[in-house]
Design a protein that fits this description.
The protein is α/β, with parallel strands linked by helices and 602 residues long. It folds into four domains: 2-161, no CATH class; 169-251, no CATH class; 259-326, N-terminal domain of TfIIb (Single Sheet), CATH 2.20.25; 339-599, Vaccinia Virus protein VP39 (Rossmann fold), CATH 3.40.50.150. It has helices at 2-8, 41-54, 68-77, 80-83, 102-108, 119-132, 155-164, 169-189, 191-209, 221-226, 228-251, 254-267, 326-333, 342-350, 353-361, 384-389, 406-413, 424-427, 450-460, 477-482, 500-509, 527-539, 553-587, and strands at residues 29-33, 58-63, 97-101, 137-142, 290-297, 306-312, 318-320, 374-378, 397-402, 419-421, 435-441, 461-472, 496-497, 512-518, 592-599. A seven-stranded mixed sheet has the order 10-9-8-11-12-15-14, sandwiched between helices. Helix 17 links the parallel strand 9 (397-402) and strand 10 (419-421). Helix 6 packs parallel to helix 7 (155-164), helix 8 crosses helix 9 (191-209) and helix 8 packs antiparallel against helix 11 (228-251).
Length: 602
């Protein structure tokens, strides 16, 4: 039912007038097609006219005879009714042909003069292009475009296509096989209901894509429906095998070997040099009444070292003690938000659209009818918040500041107008009084000197400007319940966890009036899911991480067994997190809080 509803929402190119033979030129547009796919001139001109009429800069063309399973896979990933408006959504398509504005290609730095791409390469390109046309990317059915030969039928090609879309090929194939096993068991043991469920699965291609009024006419619809269980089983087995081979090969490639050698050389002197001497007093209030809150290893990446958070008995401030040196921060941040972990981090941030909109909406009751003219997002990362917030404040200029290279990419994509790379206090003088809004979302807890960061925000804001902050709440009940497995401890990256009362006092000392404080709406629904993930990582870290000794067969088997055993726990954790989120919103108590404050006019 969902697939049929989504299919009806995909527009269909109108029948084009006759066009000259070959592919004509249209000023400002390029049509990129996969190897073996030929688009006629009439389809190209019709697509150009449609894109210009709809204000699109990137348009994926779905062949009218697109293979049934490929169509179903796309409809699982994309809701066409929301695709264009979802500024953070992944670029998705069929992998056959993409119409692109030349200026988008230029901004994205894409070279398209080589050989025709494979479908996986075209899918990866579309994913990148969507970032440069965040609210002007669409998809359309092109009846005049033929899929030709089936694409991505083999295991390696399927793995390449899934990875090009940022999807875990092995995990998805394993889930597919598990679903088939569940259906087979139900059909055998549950009588009529089990047989009905298996039958519906068998007939799904025809039920979703067949019948009158369907926008697509898959050439293989009858064959795909008749042989679906056998084809799904074979495809799943081939994909699992190919994903395993690809993962092993990736762990042994030259780049991985170089990274491993560099890490081994860096770790030859141990990790003690990455920590400063332990301090005897609280950095917030100076009290010496300190006690250990938690001591954990690096559960995020599995890098060597142990880290302690201590709590102040007077003000309840929680801080890393001993603290990482700047060199230690560089070491433990490396390959998390960029490099090896950059794609995964970007995917996680891209799924927080509701949270980003909630942060942006918090300002509405206090701005009157006028939108803020200028907004600086400190700790912007890859610029995801600024990109999403443009849907709430379309006339606001968003700038971003961050230590990492991601801020430069955000500027290139147009997610921020100007990207500043470096430490915030270093820019305070240069940017003094220039912004109506400064935001710090899950930033202060990462800093070495949070009070200095607040001083910088005070300097950068114009009188009457607003400062909005979101941080983890160290007084959350879940922190006590989950102990070392509470995700917001986030060691070794989080340096300070600040109770709300302490932050309010610090803001008042700097001439701010707190206008609003939210706990429930700021809750991040990951307490139980994060606890399972951290525990699984502790029991069996990634065997291919370059900072660890070379992976053994035993380590790989253990990691696979732990991940398999954790699957039902992840499912249960997701249910508990949904219940916990509902309770947090109802009682206004979560694992994080937001504060909105106004800088008072002198």
């Amino acid at each position: 039912m969902r697939a049929r509803r989504r299919l009806r929402a995909v527009p269909v190119l109108p029948a084009p007038p006759a066009a000259p033979a070959g592919l004509p030129r249209a000023a400002g547009w390029r049509l990129l097609s996969a190897r073996g796919v030929e688009a006629d001139g009439a389809t190209f001109l019709a697509a150009c006219a449609y894109a210009e009429r709809e204000g699109l800069r990137v348009l994926d063309l779905l062949p009218g005879d697109l293979a049934a399973e490929r169509a179903l896979g796309l409809l699982r990933l994309v809701d066409p009714a929301r695709y264009r408006e979802d500024r953070l959504g992944e670029g998705r398509g069929a992998g056959y042909a993409v119409l692109v504005a030349e200026e988008v290609l230029a901004r994205a730095g894409c070279v398209t003069d080589g050989p025709r791409p494979e479908p996986a390469e075209l899918l990866a390109l579309l994913r990148r292009l969507k970032e440069y046309a965040a609210d002007s990317t669409g998809l359309v059915i092109a009846p005049g475009l033929s899929a030709g030969r089936p694409a991505g039928a083999s295991g390696p090609a399927r793995v390449a296509e899934l990875r090009a879309q940022g999807l875990p090929a092995g995990a998805l194939a394993a889930a597919q096989l598990a679903g088939l096993a569940l259906l087979a068991r139900a059909a055998v043991r549950q009588g009529g209901w089990g047989a009905a469920a298996a039958g519906l699965y068998w007939l799904q291609p025809y039920l979703a894509l067949g019948g009158p009024g369907a926008g697509l006419r898959p050439a293989d619809l009858a064959r795909a429906t008749a042989a679906r269980p056998v084809r799904s089983l074979g495809a799943g087995l081939r994909t699992v095998a190919a994903a395993t081979r690809a993962r092993t090969a990736a762990g042994a490639d030259a780049d991985s070997a170089r990274a491993a050698a560099a890490y081994r050389a860096e770790l030859a002197d141990g990790t003690d040099r990455f920590l400063e001497p332990r301090r005897p007093d609280c950095p917030w209030c100076g009290s010496r009444q300190l006690s250990v809150q938690v001591t954990v290893p690096d559960l995020l990446q599995g890098k060597p070292g142990s880290f302690t958070l201590e709590r102040c008995g007077r003000c309840a401030h929680v801080f890393q003690n001993p603290r990482l040196t700047p060199e230690g921060l560089e070491f433990y941040y490396r390959d998390f938000y960029d490099g090896r972990g950059g794609e995964g981090a970007g995917t996680v941030f891209g799924r927080l659209g509701a949270a980003y909109r909630g942060r942006a909406e918090m300002l509405r009751p206090y701005t009157g009818s006028a939108a803020p003219a200028s907004w600086l997002d400190v700790g912007t990362g890859h610029g995801h918040f600024c990109n999403a917030a443009r849907a709430v404040w379309p006339r606001t200029r968003f700038d971003g500041l961050d230590m990492g290279d991601g801020v430069r990419g955000a500027e290139a994509r147009g997610w921020v107008e100007t990207g500043f790379q470096g430490q915030f206090p270093e820019f305070a003088g240069k940017l003094a009084g220039q912004y109506e809004v400064v935001s710090m979302y899950h930033y202060l807890e990462h800093t070495r000197e949070p009070l200095a960061e607040l001083d910088a925000a005070t300097a950068v804001l114009a009188p009457g400007g607003h400062l909005t902050i979101e941080v983890p709440d160290p007084q959350s009940r879940m922190a006590r319940l989950l102990g070392p497995a509470w995700l917001p401890w986030f060691q070794p990256q989080h340096q300070h966890l600040i109770p709300a009362a302490n932050l309010r006092e610090a803001l008042a000392d700097r001439g701010f009036t707190v206008l609003s404080e939210e706990h429930g709406p700021a809750h991040q629904g990951n307490d139980f899911f994060g606890a399972v993930a951290l525990t699984a990582s502790r029991l069996a870290p990634d065997p291919d991480r370059p900072w660890a000794p070379p992976a053994t067969a035993r380590a790989r088997v253990l990691a696979g067994a732990v991940r398999a055993a954790a699957l039902p726990l992840f499912a249960g954790a997701a249910v508990l997190d949904a219940l916990r989120t509902a309770a947090a919103h109802h009682a206004d108590g979560g694992n994080a809080y937001r504060v909105l404050a106004r800088k008072d006019t002198p």
